[in-house]
Design brief:
The chain contains six helices and no strands. The protein is an all-alpha fold and 112 residues long. The N and C termini lie close together (7 Å). 12% of the residues are buried.
Length: 112
């Protein structure tokens, strides 16, 4: 999103991106494990099929890595909206455009 709209992202430390250092490592590790699991599933059956729970988990981790200080209610609302709109995996979330974020608060949209 940042590249598409001409905004140059400033480099942020993992502590800034994820809140505390411990929380950041936990989220990064969870994202890595999820990506590794997805790769293993692709190799086994030639495709990836996420369950609804798996989709929500992936979207939640993506949200927390990009907007680390979201309130619990916002995380639930955004996860639900993303999955309902078809953005149910990290791969799909990489193709977000500004118009896809209509349900988010203005401040959260700017950060993304």
């Amino acid at each position: 999103i940042r590249e598409r709209f001409g905004v140059t992202p400033r480099q942020r430390s993992s502590e800034e991106r994820f809140g505390t250092r411990k929380n950041g490592r936990r989220i990064q590790n969870a994202l890595f494990r999820k990506k590794e699991e997805r790769t293993n599933r692709e190799q086994e059956d030639g495709g990836v099929y996420l369950s609804r729970t798996g989709s929500h988990f992936e979207v939640k981790l993506w949200l927390m890595s990009n907007l680390p200080r979201l309130q619990k209610d916002d995380v639930k609302k955004y996860c639900k909206c993303f999955v309902e709109d078809g953005f149910d995996s990290v791969d799909m979330l990489e193709d977000l455009e500004e118009g896809d974020l209509h349900f988010m608060k203005n401040g959260h949209r700017r950060v993304l």
